Amino acid sequence: MKNKRVAIIGAGPSGLAQLRAFEALEKNGVQVPEIVCFEKQENWGGMWNYSWRTGVGRYGEPVHGSMYKYLWSNGPKECLEFSDYSFDEHFKKPISSYPPRPVLFDYIEGRIKKSNAKKYIRFNTTARWVDYNNANQKFTLVLDNLKENRTYSEEFDYLVVASGHFSTPNMPYFKGIEDFPGGVMHAHDFRGADQFKNQNLLLIGSSYSAEDIGVQCYKHGAKSVTLSYRSNPIGVEWPDGIKEVPLLTHFEGDIAHFADGTSEKFDAVVMCTGYQHKFPFLPDELRLKTKNNLYPDQVYKGIFFNELPQLIYLGMQDQYYTFNMFDAQAWVARDFMMEELVLPEKDQRRKDMDDWLKRLNNLDGCYDAVDFQSDYIKDLLSLSDYPDFNVDKVAEMFKEWLGDKEENILTYRDKTFTSVVTGTKAEEHHTEWMEELDDSKERYLAFQDEVEIELEKAE
Amino acid sequence: MKNKRVAIIGAGPSGLAQLRAFEALEKNGVQVPEIVCFEKQENWGGMWNYSWRTGVGRYGEPVHGSMYKYLWSNGPKECLEFSDYSFDEHFKKPISSYPPRPVLFDYIEGRIKKSNAKKYIRFNTTARWVDYNNANQKFTLVLDNLKENRTYSEEFDYLVVASGHFSTPNMPYFKGIEDFPGGVMHAHDFRGADQFKNQNLLLIGSSYSAEDIGVQCYKHGAKSVTLSYRSNPIGVEWPDGIKEVPLLTHFEGDIAHFADGTSEKFDAVVMCTGYQHKFPFLPDELRLKTKNNLYPDQVYKGIFFNELPQLIYLGMQDQYYTFNMFDAQAWVARDFMMEELVLPEKDQRRKDMDDWLKRLNNLDGCYDAVDFQSDYIKDLLSLSDYPDFNVDKVAEMFKEWLGDKEENILTYRDKTFTSVVTGTKAEEHHTEWMEELDDSKERYLAFQDEVEIELEKAE
């Protein structure tokens, strides 16, 4: 292990999971490689580190975050709980199943703050370019210290790419959009519903973004929300004020025309048209080239680049599981880098990947997809000592969540679930989600009676 | 010259000037080096190539353009005319002195279309990284073909950086901005006034952007426009509906507070807070590090990187002169690359730069600044065979323009000037600028009588 060096690109949930995985060993007295984590942003948390900025950041790099105000978890927190750091351990009391962004950020940060992982992270530093040298089997990274406007190079034995894949917008062209008079933005640049109050809003897409931004804008006072889908509508029962229409064909001024021949006037457009996997710092032969799916090709066990397993990708899948999946991946990656886990030969790895891809191609709907990713998680858990958790029970919760959403898209966040890590049953939030316009940690964590006192004072 | 290779980064006015400069020689039968021009966008024209996109482009690269709808030249076209390709030659008839964006784009394109320069340009290609090798004195460029998602490297003897400096926003933080409920954008992402109709708009800054976006929004129906300046107001006589206030100190919700203790409620904020010189593809020791000023340090004659003159920067100055200055620079750069122009030694170059910088530091107001840049242009013109033009007369026009703006910021674009290239007096535009809401080339070029016929038809 001595003298080996590991570079991690990104200090979001995946990159931090990798740091945490090594730290878990170190705490047990094991010597770990020298680790450097490069983070473009000023702080850790990746996507969960909210920024008001859009476009490019303070130093002119594309803004990483797609996060917006009033974002509440859109899945039960019990489905993403770290199995080595429970919500109970962090908050010291039960909380609801669907916390807002600041609360989840606090949780992510809580685990990493307990370690001295911060010393491994170089903030405000972006990876400009990576060269892999076959002769000495090392990666040379060109780094750019954005704050100091200074570039330098360093060599590493392993490269962990944990830069996420919900940062680079995919933004198709629609005829006439250049003459649409209102604002046009990608969901990546959406920072909250306030500016759409009393507006007729067109959302293009039927992904989580479309669903969530649509519901938020409805909740926070948009006059109407219209979602335009390409192939299939989201199809839940929408309240009055939200509707789904077929694919947008073109714009004429502020009028949008749809594939069913209908048309409507809009004030603003938000494109919820997804994201691209983008790795500008990598030569293309090392780039993961994939659409967003549950099992990207090219990576064995979803993490090891098959052409060069010292190149490791974390969190590049489409996701039901999130934090706990990144952990499971990071622990496996760690064991490989520690030379504790030996990978099979390339063609065997290829065969394993092909088996998964075959199953992926035959998935039948989202319940089946949950099972697929659950089995993937189980496979990962079998390979490392990341604390086991009841994956089948989590899968059940995911399915319940899918049902809840279908039943009522406006109230599913009022439901509660039971932790598979601690057995704790979540609290009901003190305020119904549709009535809760404040997403601050302070308000969220206030006890029911405190909120009531506040309300009385305010009257 | 044989076997020498020149890389040009950017096919905007500066990069195209460089191509045109070599082409002028080639037409005379001179053998020129092998030239490759790399352009990130799908088309040439740089800043003048309008895109509806904001943030990042189709392939996830930061959008180059800061261009918006209804942008009309904010200086007389007679001050930027190519001296080897007149407006008369292009349009075959006199036009007004302040054309809109599509008309200027047409003009830029007109000259370059006459050549076969397109064959030198690799579109949709960005420069990822540059290494300079002292041993063989060559630049290695890592290029990224965005459309094909393919990277490759090539070696060059000269590197011409013509990537502009009005692309990377400078966006300061103001306390409370993260809670401002309305839209917040940088001028770089402004695409036209329409979305601000009937809104109370706050513009931060007192640059050309603030002035021009403010007047456009006023013209196109904003309820009110407030410009907040840092040190000095623009100070012209504003119409009712536009005003200047001191520096923004902070936001409380949708209320902006200013340094004079006043405060006001706004619907949206546009930061006209300038741009950064940004060269992410260059190692920092080759980066031009400068604020926007009329004579950036580090570059001899405003173009040759003093530490390494084979590295050439075009158009990196703050600009009164534009297209004709880029030309004058490109012709000088060409002669150096052709080994027709020999540069003095490094310390002599340093002394020359210091002399200019000394003068720069003692400039007294904008009339003096015009003279400064005029003298810089004359210096360049003395060094190459770029067709001479009457710089003193152009300087006079700039001064007249400054006075016109001070006299009436809403009508200065109705004035006309006389070309120093052809002696042609500009036509008055068929419609007063404040009444002209259509910036299309078709309408602009229509004869007065055609417009009248159209108007009659519409009635």
From TrEMBL, chains A, B:
<dbReference type="InterPro" id="IPR020946">
    <property type="entry name" value="Flavin_mOase-like"/>
</dbReference>
<dbReference type="InterPro" id="IPR036188">
    <property type="entry name" value="FAD/NAD-bd_sf"/>
</dbReference>
<protein>
    <submittedName>
        <fullName>NAD(P)-binding domain-containing protein</fullName>
    </submittedName>
</protein>
<keyword id="KW-0285">Flavoprotein</keyword>
<dbReference type="InterPro" id="IPR050346">
    <property type="entry name" value="FMO-like"/>
</dbReference>
<keyword id="KW-0521">NADP</keyword>
<keyword id="KW-0274">FAD</keyword>
<dbReference type="Pfam" id="PF00743">
    <property type="entry name" value="FMO-like"/>
</dbReference>
<keyword id="KW-0560">Oxidoreductase</keyword>
<dbReference type="InterPro" id="IPR000960">
    <property type="entry name" value="Flavin_mOase"/>
</dbReference>
<comment type="similarity">
    <text>Belongs to the FMO family.</text>
</comment>
